[in-house]
UniProtKB/TrEMBL annotation:
It comes from the Bacteria. Pfam families: Acetyltransf_3. The keyword rRNA processing does not apply. GO terms for cellular component: cytoplasm. Its EC number is 2.3.1.-. This is GNAT family N-acetyltransferase. It is an enzyme of class 2 (transferase). The keyword Cell cycle does not apply. Residues 14-182 form the N-acetyltransferase domain. Belongs to the acetyltransferase family. RimJ subfamily. It comes from Candidatus Flavonifractor intestinigallinarum. GO terms for molecular function: protein-N-terminal-alanine acetyltransferase activity.
Length: 186
């Protein structure tokens, strides 16, 4: 059994590892249709073990460089099945000391609080282990479940970014949400 980097009450967070390419590819294939309205268009190879091995290798290199930390989510009682992923991406130091959070959850688990749990746990991990000042999320206005999950994890809306990201071939507006590390020493 793989060791978790950390856990929340119902989730295990596994560091990205190319050895997890097959279950990661299965996760994306299982959720391809559900994620399509919210994701950039991906090449067919992305949904294969080979494509995921390449992506997970890149994720590992990014973590080693301190630029981003992505985790594959499992339920501890089923550690071989990937049920989601989350990451702290584009980490910027200096006066900003911020990053962007990303998250996905198996569509069969939507509406059960797993998304908010993953977002909150990873954000706390980033505050505690990386000393981040803020974690930012950008969510399409129509993606109400994702907005609710971020709000349950104490993210606040800061504004609207027009035509922010190209999703499913279209430039989409995104609501900018943020959670600040109010516990840090000033």
């Amino acid at each position: 059994m793989r060791r978790f980097v950390f856990r929340s009450p119902r989730l295990g967070f596994l560091a990205c590892d190319p050895a997890l390419a097959a279950p990661a590819a299965a996760f994306y294939r299982r959720n391809r249709e559900a994620f399509a309205p919210f994701d950039p268009i991906q090449p067919e190879e992305f949904f294969t073990p080979e494509g995921q091995e390449e992506r997970l290798t890149w994720d590992l290199e990014q973590a080693e460089a301190g630029r981003s930390f992505r985790f594959l989510l499992v339920q501890p009682r089923h550690p071989g099945k990937i049920i989601g992923l989350t990451g702290l991406n584009e980490i910027i130091g200096g006066a900003l000391h911020s990053c962007f959070i990303s998250y996905k959850l198996d569509h069969t688990l939507w509406g059960q609080g797993y998304g908010a749990e993953a977002i909150a746990a990873l954000t706390e991990w980033g505050f505690r282990n990386l000393g981040l000042h803020r974690v930012e999320a950008n969510i399409m206005p129509r993606n109400l479940p994702s907005r609710r999950a971020a709000a349950k994890a104490d993210f606040e809306e800061e504004g609207l970014a027009r035509r922010y990201l190209k999703i499913n071939g279209v430039w989409e507006d995104h609501i900018h949400m943020v959670r600040r590390n109010d516990e840090e020493d000033l």
